[in-house]
Amino acid sequence: MSSISYLFSRLLQIVPTFLLVMIFIFLLVRLLPGDPAIAMADAKATEAQLEQIRHNLGLDQPMPIQFAKFVGNVLTGDLGNSILQKAPVLAVIQDRLPVTLFLAGYSMALAILFSVPLAFVAALYRDRLPDLLIRSIFQISLSMPVFYIGLILLSILAARLKWLPVGGYGETWAEHFSHLLLPALTIAFYSSAIILRNLRTSVIEVLDAEYIQFARAKGLPQRLVLFRHVFRNALISTVTLLGLSIGNLMSGTLVTETVFAVPGLGRLMLDAIFARDYPLIQGLTLTFAVLVSLVFLATDMFQSWLDPRLRKS
Amino acid sequence: MSGLIQRESRENALPETANRPALSVQGLSTSFTKQGRDLKAVNNVSFDLAPGEILGLVGESGSGKSITLRSLIGIVRPQGRIDGSVLWKGRNLVTMNEPQLRKIRGREIAMIFQEPMSSLNPLLTIGLQITENLKAHTSLGRQERQKRAIELLDLVGIPAAASRLDDYPHQFSGGMRQRVMIAIALASNPELLLADEPTTALDVTIQDQILRLIMDLRTELNMAVILVTHDLGVVAQSCDRVAVMYAGRIIESGSVGTILKAPQHPYTLGLLQSVPQDQPPRTPLFSIDGTPPALDDMPTGCAFAPRCQQAQGTCLESAPDFSLVGSGHAAACHILETARPSLGENK
Amino acid sequence: MTALTLSRLPAPVLQALARPAFLIGGGIILMSTLFALFPAAFAPYDPLAFNYAAIQQPPSLAHPFGTDNFGRDILSRVIWAYRIDMMIALFATIFALLIGVTAGSLVGYHGGWADTIFGRCVDAVITFPFLVLVIAVVAMLGPGLINMFVAITLVNWVYYARLMRAEVMTQTAHDYVSAGRVMGYSSGRIIFRHILPNAITPVLTFWMTDMALAILLGSSLGYLGLGAQPPLAEWGVLIAEGRNFIFTAWWMSLCPGIAIVLTGLGFSLLGDAVADMLRPKG
Hints:
The complex is a heterotrimer. Chain A is mostly helical. Chain A contains 14 helices and 2 strands; from the N terminus they run H-H-H-H-E-E-H-H-H-H-H-H-H-H-H-H. Chain A has 2 domains: 73 residues, no CATH class; 213 residues, Orthogonal Bundle (MetI-like fold). Chain B has a single domain, classed as P-loop containing nucleotide triphosphate hydrolases (Rossmann fold), CATH 3.40.50. Chain A: Belongs to the binding-protein-dependent transport system permease family.
């Protein structure tokens, strides 16, 4: 019961944020230097054609009315028509969304697999060899741009050893997993570094906490101290971190999809940019913001489930 | 290490106790390595404790009293090196490994902490935090553990105990949390309770209640207590004997009556003078100038010498020995022989 | 710095100066700066000279990073690219720093409705993945180095302002600020003469790390074709040029990346060391 009212209050908080997000996306096209109609039309467009484009975009009306219409359209799922794909933006995005979600989930799973155990090892062996080793490796990977990590993996695993397909998405689920393994590894490697660095610190904080010393003073078995007391508390900061790093993950998918020719939203965004497909760019920017917000929301819900202090009684 | 056991024949200067000591600490030292340097937080500490006795361990923050307490059951963090011997019912806790220690911690020796806020796990119910202790140390079944947990909460004076098992720590007030922590510590009838500043974080009235609770339980369960505190008032109210720590060492120890009436060490005297007592209104409170030395900057002589108004040449050269100055009363000070009369006249 | 001035520095600073993180990070950044200022003095070949006798040669003693599909020496091209990439590190961050510090100080000091609006803006900005937002702005302005700086600054200042706001709010609670108010100082004087010097440290530390991030971001945008444009030699652009040859001439893509990793590492090590140095002792 209480978690539903909590969800509701969180949703209410999102409303003003999203209003600003909409204003930003709305202004993005309006504040373009020059006339977006000219930018969108091809060079030999007649004045009548330009007028038509302006009318289609609603640019011939006053700003507040334009904005109200824009919000109304977005809320009813009308994001305009893609110039590039010659189809409604919503349909184009819906078509590509599963690929990106699959890739994001896949890489998140791999990142958790890498970083969570390593963070615990590093924290438990603080300032000793395993910790220093783990930290130096990830310090270096923090200095690598995602596309470079991708190219290294590509040249070793695909070009040299020929273990993995070079890219694409494939048709079946099995193919999805094998085709997306390289891109997912790339993103996971990059996200792990960020997660690991922060998670190590928070695990150390938990290990140093008085309630852990108290649990030890109670003479509890080691695994109980570690799993019931340390892990549960560290899980809260882990979830927070994973939630906050969703933006990084999305940025990572955008670049990685380009490197590995994965037909997802990131790849679509770049295609849209080079084709000056403004409605599609707007739609995609909004989609990314919605995705991130949903993850933030899920993180909050999970946290309040884990932490009794956040539960409203 | 085994050589130390023979010293039980107490040529050390601590007071005789009627019974055979339950706990005998000899030459306990705890050191940490920081940037290649060895820092001794606890330095050659020795004391005995009889069953049912309450020993106060007093000192400023950073004097090593808390670390001494934690060293006894090996829960020092960050991991330090512990030397010396802690004889508990004939077994040396210092040389024990973790699994062996875990059988003693919480079962025979329990500990309570200073901050009731941060010492209870915020994510687990009070009931679970009590019963997990019972599960680890007793053979009680699920139902019985539940029943015992309610008894324990009753014992420490938590109203409507049965209805509070499913509550989380944040739903309790500070004093109630400290009671909960004591209930957890008492779960398996320990013979020794280590209390690390159990009242410091609490209001004065609550402080009093908690101290009374500990003293009552001592009488009821014949449980020995080591009470770490920086508050001499707490010591006067509740302890049988007291040991004063400064810079990692015990510098004076004796019965509470003796120490409060006739302190021998200038530091103890200073501590006593900084407690307001029987003075006319508006008398400025005495305070000891300066601060205790940092661990990485220990003077070669007596650690208190830089702050001691009576320090002489020898004080700066060598650390004084801990020696008997009266019946069951010992102190570590070079100038005791010469300056004792003036020191004794506290009032 | 002479021995005399060195010996006057406080001990913690001296200790931090002797730390490997500072020495390595500082060394890398010094070298990078020299490369950026005097590429001709360090580059073994003319970065633009075609050499059809040495096309796509793998790394060797003569060409440590190999040669590209026109026979150009990749090491020389990488060294000349330091110019652009060090410029990115500076210009992608410095304006964000200046705007962020000013806005953050004002909002943090005055609070009220401006603070509320600012909080909402921060919420909105962090709702976008950073790269998506930057790319969206670049998309509108058109690809190119200058537009990239504008786009990054437009997004990035929020992060500086958020940090600065928090610091200023902490400082404002201190007594010396109320003392300044009692003495009738103008709020401008209190903010910039009194609070700022106390509150700026975390921001400067963040700046160091952010320069590392700017290099990663700048080269990513270069790789995607949204930042520096060919034929300008920029690491991301160089890597993108080699992308099509990854199966036959891996060094064309992988060798320029070494410069990115090295410089990024340099800035973050230096940032960590500076953070240690400026942290109140303890």
